[in-house]
Structures are given as C-alpha cells and as structure tokens.
Design goal:
It is built from 20 helices and 24 strands. The chain has about 600 residues and is of the alpha+beta class. The strands form 6 sheets. Strands 7-6-5-8-3-2-9-10 form an 8-stranded mixed β-sheet, covered by helices on one side. The chain has a 5-stranded mixed β-sheet with strand order 11-12-15-13-14, with helices on both faces. A 4-stranded antiparallel β-sheet has the order 18-19-20-24. α14 packs across α18, α14 crosses α19 and α16 crosses α18. It starts with a strand and ends with a helix. It binds adenosine-5'-diphosphate and magnesium ion. The site of magnesium ion (MG) has 5 residues, from α2.
C-alpha cells in the first residue's frame, strides 16, 4: 500500500499521543516500522544512551522515492485507509504519527531504497523542516538516523536520565521485540559496543537465552495452548467422538497462548519479567500479569514472581489497539476469556513440569481452599488427564481465582498487629527455621528472612542519620566487571556509596573497591559486589527513584545469615531479640513472611482436642 494522509474522519478516531518521551520511545517506533516493513535483520545503534544518536537499519521493503516526503506528514500511513481498518489492525503501526513526531524534535536523516528502485532517496529534516532531499547509493531497506534528540526542546532534554539508564530502556525495548520476533535478527550497539544480539533463526529458546541467559532459558517451560483446539475437543467429546480437524481449524474464536514460563524454581523479586505480547505486540496488562501470578499459586514463595514470555494470538477484530498513546496497552473484547486462557495455559504447563509439592493431607493449617480450578471442578478436561495429576492429588484445591482481579493472599492467617510477643527459643530445624514459643502457641522463624529484616532496618537507620558504617579495606581490591555490571555501577555509583561501597573507576569495566558496607562482615568484597550487581540486574531495570532502596535490600540479602547455617542457642536468642526490636518484624524487606504462627487453638484443633 502507498503512504497516504488519513482522511479526517479516520484521523479523528486515532487515539493521539505524545509518542516521543525519551530515546527508547524513538527506538520503539523505528523498530516497529522496520518489523512492519518485513525486515529480516534490524540493527540498532545508539550513542550516549540515544541522546547523541539513534540509528535503526533494516532490510525491509523500503519506501518508494515519491512517497518519502509524505512519510513525515502527520497522519500519513500506508497501513490503513478507512475507519473499518482501525478495528482490525494487523501491523504494529497504524497512526502515521511516529516519523512526524520524531522528526519534529531531532535532526533526522532517512535513507531508503525499495528493491525495485535503482537508487536510494536521502532526506534530512531538522526540527521537522526538510533541509535536504536527494538520491544516494544504499543497499535495499531503510536507515533512519536520529541525532540530538530534543535539541530544540530543552524542557524535555532536561528530564532525560543518565546515559546508562536511557541505554537500559532501549535495551529493554530491543530485547523484548527480539523475543516476539525470533525470526528477525536483532543487534544493538551502544557506544560502539555490541550489547545484545539474536541469531534470527526463529527459535524462541535462542532468543530467551540471548535476552536472559542460557541458564535461565534452560529453566523455562514451553507453553503451547490453543483455545480453538480445546473447545473443539470438548465439543467432540460431548458429541461422543474425537475432535476432527475441521472443527479445529474452523473454530471462530481461536485464542492461543504460546511462549515460555519459568519452572517454579525460577522466581524473581519483581513482576518485570512477566512479558506479554498480543498478536506479537508488546503490551502491559495488569490483569494478565495477575493471571500468570495466580497460575503459580502455591508454587512460588510469597512475594516472589515468575518469569514468563507469552504471546497471545487472537482475531485482530477482538482486540482494540487504538486505546493508548504509546500503544502499550490494548483492550480486549472479552477480557475474561483472555485472562482465563492465559491462566490455564500457564497452569497446565507448570503443572505438567512441576513435581508434586509435598503438602500432603488437607490438614495443612494455613491453606484453606475450596472450589475447583476454573468453572468446572471435577470434570475431566483433557489437559488435566493428559498433563499429569489432578488437583485433588495435591491435597488442596485452588480457589476460583478467575472472578478476582485483585491480589490474593490467602496464605497466612489474618494480619496480626505489628510488634511481637516475647518469645522463648526452643531450637532450630533444617538449619533454617528457629522454633520458638510465644504466649499463644508456636512460632517458626525463617532465620534468613528475619536477619534480612534486622539488617535492613539497621541500614535504614544509619542512612537516616547519615552515618552508614563502612569497612575501609586495608588494600583496595580490584574487580573486573562485565560491561553490563560496569554500566550499572556507573549509573548507581551514588546509591552504592550511600549503602557503604566506595568504588572508583580503574579503566574499562574494572573498578577498585576501597570500602564495603560494614554489615557485609567478613565477606569477600569483590564477590559480594558482583553478587549484589547480579541481583540488581536480575529483575527489572532499576527505576531511578527506588534504586537506593533496591540496593539496600540487595546488600542486606547478601549480608544476612543463610539457610543451612547452624546457629547456637545464644545466636538464635539474639536474632529473635533483634527481630522483636524492628518496626515490621513479620516480613522481610522483600515482603516475604519472616515467621509462621500456629496458635494454641490451631494446635488443639489439629490434635482433635477441641
Ligand atoms: P505508521 O507506522 O503508523 O504508519 P510512521 O510515521 O511510523 O507511521 O511511518 C509512516 C509510514 O512510513 C509508514 O506507514 C510506512 O509506510 C513508512 N515507513 C516508515 N518506516 C519504514 C521502514 N523502516 N521501512 C519501510 N517503510 C517505512
Ligand atoms: Mg510507525
């Protein structure tokens, strides 16, 4: 299709938005255009976090010479024509706004050649005004170079974050698209260094390994769920026969969920690695996020989140993509159906791969479940029988979680008032839990979580008094970091120093450690730093405002007593005493419980004394 200016009635229906917020927004729009153009290879190059330069090169269809000036007009697009098209968008772009918006706030050069034309066209715009238009030599495809973003909008320039932070946002965009399009070869170069690339061979597993790492990818479970197939099978069974292929392919409401999710052993402190695509468009959706978290119910520790990369495919007519300024959210015609499908798809995959958890019996005091999973408790849906044990074999059953979009926390008893009663330490079990007696029954205390809470409050207090205790090293330790870790240190030097690290650049990705937080005790300084950086990088790109918090939590985690450590009676008493003195003794800084309480009444009930 050729590029045309949308008629006013269509333009008026387009949810307009400020698409250019930061360098990553530019990368998102340009990469989407390259994907829409059918590129097999997309190379992104940035300098200074994209502030100096962003270049996106693709080998897609190119833009015919005569259409090039039009591409920079507002509401000029080759991707839709009528209002009707807006209700079944199959391309990532459709508003015809991105090029115009980006050109308006930068110095932009576009070089493009469709395979059918002998020469490329080169156009340069500054602040949206065309300054050069001519022919040039170039391989087929399109190269767009955006220099000095916001050079003419100082107000927005001011809000940009450090280069490393902006680069991290760009990394996130590129790597997410690489997950959605394993058939496309992606490469990202930041300040002349390749920081990310995929092979474009079409295997999602390879892309996962590139985006996370091989070890993480190996712990992921394949999700292949097809609602059309499911419905057809059910219908087939009802009719007393096997599903036939015709039913499978002609199913009107086909909804499929494909991708990978983490095995239960793989979990994170944040939800940032739950990634969704709808018809291969990367979107944010709280409710879908919730669907996945709920699918792991009881499989993950409280406050931990799974890793998931899922593409939901459905008829484009059943999803409205024209609802959000940056196209980051969509609206489903039947959100419940999509929620259910996502939850079921993940639950099936996890159940099939996970070993049976040892909850045994239904008497587990803190788990009270009723009802079945989904709307058909007790039926023999094929996914249950073919994918392993039914829920009843687990000794518990899932609640009807579908009706509830909110966070469900049924695991512990009703919240007790803050503060702890005095406790008497009885002993330690599994080198991990302290058994204690209180005025009302038994307490099991997780020694690691409890110590994390204690250290965290200590650190917070020191910080409030601007007196964070650090250990000055007699001999500075030189540590060689990975480029990613070095970028993190560079970006968070201040926050790291606020918790007690004294680090100085020592050339390249090498740093010299002069001091470490006092609470790290005798830990090997280099190893501790590397561990902390790894933990920080794991999960999300730190949001600037929460970074010091996140670093503090990570340091405390590293510094605290681990499971597997035998504690003396005296050490346990001291730990419990210090825990009693904290302001929020019942949870660790990650939000996991530090203790479980079995009241005298519960004990009596369990033993049949009541
Ligand atoms: P939209 O993507 O919403 O159509 P854009 O402003 O992003 O709007 O792009 C305008 C038009 O320019 C597109 O519809 C497309 O025809 C053309 N275009 C932009 N980038 C490319 C590219 N990398 N390869 C081929 N055509 C492109
Ligand atoms: Mg576009």
């Amino acid at each position: 299709m050729t590029i045309r200016i949308l008629p006013p009635d269509v333009a008026a229906k387009i949810a307009a938005g400020e698409v250019v917020e930061r360098p990553a927004s530019v990368v998102k729009e340009l990469v989407e255009n390259a994907i829409d153009a059918g590129a097999k290879t997309i190379r992104v190059e940035i300098q200074s976090g994209g502030k100096r330069l962003i270049q996106v090169l693709d080998d897609g269809s190119g833009i015919p010479a005569e259409e090039i000036p039009l591409a920079f007009a507002r509401h000029a697009t080759s991707k839709l024509v009528s209002v009707d098209d807006l209700s079944r968008v199959t391309t990532l772009g459709f508003r015809g706004e991105a090029l115009a918006s980006v050109a308006a706030v930068s110095q932009l050069t576009l070089l493009s050649r469709p395979a059918s034309q002998p020469a490329a066209t080169r156009i340069r715009l500054e602040g949206g005004q065309q300054v050069v238009l001519g022919a040039a030599g170039s391989p087929g495809g399109t190269i767009i170079t955006v220099e000095n973003l916001f050079y003419n909008v100082p107000a927005r320039l001011k809000f940009l974050k450090a280069d490393a932070t902006e680069a991290a946002h760009i990394h996130r965009i590129v790597s997410h698209y690489a997950l959605a399009y394993p058939h496309i070869r992606f490469a990202l170069q930041s300040d002349q260094r390749t920081t990310f690339q995929t092979n474009g061979r079409g295997d999602l597993f390879d892309a996962l390994a590139a985006v996370f790492d091989l070890e993480t990818a190996r712990q992921m479970i394949l999700v292949e769920y097809d609602e059309g197939r499911e419905n057809a099978r059910t219908r087939g069974r009802e009719a007393g026969e096997d599903a036939d292929e015709e039913l499978l392919t002609s199913s009107p409401h086909r909804l499929s969920v494909h991708g990978y999710v983490g095995a239960p052993a793989l979990h994170r402190g944040t939800r940032d690695q739950i990634i969704f695509f709808v018809n291969k468009r990367w979107i944010q959706d709280r409710s879908l996020n919730q669907a996945v978290v709920q699918a792991y119910h009881t499989f993950l520790p409280v406050g931990r989140y799974p890793v998931a990369v899922l593409n939901i495919e459905l008829d484009p007519a059943e999803v409205d993509v024209n609802v959000h300024p940056t196209k980051a959210e969509v609206k489903f015609q039947d959100p419940r159906a999509v929620f259910k499908a996502a939850q079921k798809a993940v639950r099936e995959a996890v159940m099939a791969a996970a070993p049976v958890p040892a909850y045994g019996g239904q008497a587990t005091p803190t788990y009270h479940y009723s009802g079945g999973f989904g709307d058909h408790a007790g039926d023999a849906a094929p996914w249950r029988t073919s994918f392993g044990p039914s829920f009843s074999q687990f000794g518990f059953e899932m609640q009807r979680t579908f009706d509830n979009e909110g966070e469900r926390q049924p695991l512990l008893e009703p919240p007790a008032p803050q503060g702890l009663p005095l406790m008497r330490v009885v002993g330690q079990i599994q080198q991990m839990y302290i058994v204690a007696e209180g005025p009302d029954g038994l307490y099991l205390i997780d020694q690691h979580a409890a110590h994390e809470r204690i250290l965290y409050e200590k650190l917070a207090q020191q910080k409030a008094q601007a007196a964070v205790a650090r250990q000055q090293l007699l001999e500075p330790v030189v540590v060689e970091l990975s480029p990613g870790q070095a970028a993190l240190v560079e970006a968070e030097l201040k926050a790291l120093s606020e918790v007690g690290f004294e680090l100085e650049p020592f050339g390249g990705a090498t740093y010299r450690i002069r001091a470490v937080p006092d609470i790290l005790g005798q830990a090997n300084p280099a190893q501790a730093l590397v561990d902390i950086l790894a933990e920080m990088a794991d999960g999300a790109i730190p949001l600037a405002r929460e970074t010091h918090e996140k670093i503090a939590i990570t340091v405390c985690k590293r510094a605290s007593i681990k499971g597997g450590q035998i504690l003396s009676q005296e050490e346990m008493r001291e730990l419990v005493r210090q825990l009693e003195a904290t302001s929020a003794p019942r949870t660790c800084p990650h939000g996991r419980p530090t203790m479980i309480h079995l009241s005298a009444t519960q004990l009596a009930k369990e033993f049949g004394r009541l």
